[in-house]
From TrEMBL, chain A:
Subcellular location: Cell membrane
Classification via Pfam families: BPD_transp_1
Family membership noted in the UniProt record: Belongs to the binding-protein-dependent transport system permease family.
UniProt-recorded name of the protein: Probable sugar ABC transporter, permease protein
Organism of provenance: Nonomuraea gerenzanensis
TrEMBL record, chain B:
Lineage: Bacteria, Bacillati, Actinomycetota, Actinomycetes, Streptosporangiales
CDD domains: TM_PBP2
Official protein name in the record: N-Acetyl-D-glucosamine ABC transport system, permease protein 1
Family in the record: Belongs to the binding-protein-dependent transport system permease family.
Pfam family for this entry, one: BPD_transp_1
Keyword Isomerase carried by entry: no
Database matches in PANTHER family: ABC TRANSPORTER PERMEASE PROTEIN (PTHR30193), DIACETYLCHITOBIOSE UPTAKE SYSTEM PERMEASE PROTEIN NGCF (PTHR30193:SF41)
InterPro entries reported in the protein's UniProt record: ABC_transporter_permease, MetI-like, MetI-like_sf
Length: 275, 309
């Protein structure tokens, strides 16, 4: 019995090990390739850099304008997350705790809007932003990012507010606080886990957004990092190892963020998708 | 004390003594929703209507004139072999993502859930590819899969297998891009399946074990039914992600060789921003977007009926 169990366990760990290797290998290779010289990389006969070329990173940073792109991405992602948190926590609170006519209509609109896919809209969004004079403009891009994050985030926030006790709300109201004051000083601080989950999921999404960035920006100084990477790779045809260094630099912020915040991801997608 | 109102807005008497309080309550409620409504109205619903309108017009992307052309754009798209090739390819992506992607996700979630050590490690590693951007994945794999210097061919060489021109050979390019999609995306389903597995009550397994159920029976009669809601939502989300694939393909193959890996979103993008035919691009997006909406509605209807039974 125990012999059979341990063989089963061994097989299980073997399987998981292989899967982990498949998940990690491309990333490890990217790291290794980014430290090789072009000759070494093209010869393709070593998995580890014989003589790590750290200056590849300097070249990538300078040639690829990564400082500008990363700063833009931080700015756009940060504003989008703050906007999404504000708008969707207000709406989620109303859906969860306030009693008013037409609530069902709004819920229906949110669900309907969630179903509309990006390919059906991005052209018309582009046309709209042209007519608002908001192409090549951070404001237009951030507004699109915020809007696309609202439906799912509202549902996540709603599911967090539903579980909150009503007693505090009632006490604050009896003390004479208006609805906005109750929301801001009493409800929102208690919803921190929900806000964190929304921030993490929407932050990852906004950071990696590509289609709208591709359509909206042709001014390099305004591009977020994904768009900047394609501009770098296609326009200036840099050498492979430099491009690998650039992609490695570009994933550092998001990987660190993921490693720090990963427990919120499960909570958030669980709450948004299933409840 | 206020009583709970379940009356529809149209039938609500608005000027009764109680109506004033109700009006105030409605105003408060809707003012909390106002920012969301404004943004969704301007940047989602308006463009959605515009997309449909644009598909009946001709537009060069610059001029303010958009003359009405009726169904010309649709006729043009109907006879466009690139668009229909892209639709066939994306069905392939959908099927592979759905079967292989979800299969791997569920299998790995079951495996991780049943080990005692290293759970956090495997969970972290398996979702890691999912936080990368489409551009990074596209660039990275275009190097890994390169015919001459690509590391995949070298790995195959080490075990005595022949290399391939993975992205240049029409016969293998489509499955290879689908495999890259699975590598990139299965972590999402894995996370949800794992969360779902941890919610299955332990007592069910204990009772089944007392009754002598073997491993397969415990999966078939406990795990699978308990996971049903997670399975349907993961299926829908994976399917929609596979069908909307864009950036990975654009960076990896740009639809080639020929149009063997062309996908609808890329075809729409090219029609508008490479061929400057926004009207027919809009017609494509209406056809393709409409198909996606139908699919979502169908899936939701099936799920709802199943959960009601």
């Amino acid at each position: 019995m125990s012999g059979k169990t341990s063989i089963h366990k061994l097989g299980l760990y073997g399987l998981l090990g292989v899967a982990a290797l498949i998940a990690l290998f491309p990333l490890l290779w990217m790291l290794s390739g980014s430290l090789q010289s072009l000759t070494e990389l093209l010869a393709n006969d070593s998995f580890l850099p014989a003589d790590p070329q750290w200056h590849n990173y300097v070249t990538a940073w300078v040639q690829g304008d990564l400082g500008v792109y990363l700063r833009n991405s931080v700015l756009y992602t940060g504003s989008a997350v703050v906007g999404i948190l504000l708008v969707s926590s207000l709406a989620g609170y109303a859906l969860a705790r306030l009693d008013f006519a037409g609530k069902g209509v709004f819920t229906f609109i949110i669900l309907a809007v969630m179903i509309i896919p990006a390919p059906a809209m991005f052209l018309a969004q582009y046309k709209l932003l042209i007519s608002l004079n908001l192409t090549n403009n951070p404001v237009g891009y951030v507004l699109i990012l915020i809007t696309s994050g609202i439906p799912m985030s509202t549902l996540i926030m709603r599911s967090f507010f539903v579980g909150q006790p009503a007693a505090l709300e009632e006490a604050a109201t009896l003390d004479g606080a208006g609805p906005l004051r109750v929301f801001w000083s009493v409800i929102l601080p208690l919803a921190r886990p929900g806000l964190a989950a929304v921030a993490v999921i929407q932050g990852l999404g906004a950071w990696n957004e590509y289609l709208m960035a591709l359509v909206l920006f042709d001014d390099n100084s305004l591009m977020p990092v994904q768009r900047g990477l394609t501009a770098f790779s296609s326009a200036e045809t840099p050498q492979q190892q430099i491009l690998l260094a650039a992609t490695t630099i570009s994933i550092v912020p998001v990987v660190i963020f993921y490693l720090m915040a990963q427990r919120h991801i499960v909570k958030g997608i669980g709450a948004g998708a299933i409840k | 004390m206020t009583t709970r109102q379940l009356v529809l807005p149209a039938r609500r008497p608005s000027r009764t003594p109680r109506g004033k309080r109700a009006l105030r309550r409605n105003l408060i409620g809707w003012s909390f929703l106002a920012p969301a409504i404004a943004l969704i109205g301007v940047f989602t619903i308006t463009p959605f209507g515009q997309a449909i309108l644009l598909s009946f017009q001709s537009w060069d992307g610059v001029s303010p004139d958009t003359p009405w052309v009726g169904f010309d754009n649709y006729a043009f798209v109907a006879s466009d072999p690139i668009f229909w090739a892209s639709m066939r390819n994306v069905v392939f992506f959908g099927v592979v993502g759905f079967i292989v992607g979800n299969g791997v996700a569920l299998g790995m979630a079951l495996a991780v859930n049943s080990v005692t050590r290293g759970k956090t490690f495997f969970r972290t590693v398996f979702y890691l590819p999912g936080v990368l951007s489409v551009v990074v994945v596209g660039l990275l794999f275009s190097f890994i899969l390169a015919p001459g210097s690509g590391v995949l061919n070298r790995l195959l060489g080490l075990v005595g297998l022949d290399g391939q021109n993975w992205l240049g050979d029409p016969a293998v390019a489509l499955p290879v891009v689908a495999a890259v999609f699975v590598w990139f995306h299965w972590g999402f389903g894995f996370l949800l399946f794992l969360a779902g597995l941890q919610d299955v009550p332990k007592e069910l397994y204990e009772a089944a074990e007392l009754d002598g159920a073997n491993r397969w029976e415990r999966f078939r009669y406990i795990t699978w039914p308990q996971l049903a809601p997670v399975t349907s939502i993961v299926s829908l989300l994976t399917l929609l992600a596979a069908l909307q694939i864009f950036g990975t393909v654009q960076v990896l193959t740009n639809g080639g060789p020929g149009n063997h890996t062309m996908v609808p979103t890329l075809a729409i993008y090219n029609e508008a921003f490479v061929n400057w035919r926004y009207g027919s691009a809009a017609a494509m997006s209406v056809i393709f977007g409409g198909a996606l909406v139908l699919l979502s509605v169908l899936q939701l209807a099936i799920t709802r009926r199943r959960s009601r039974v």
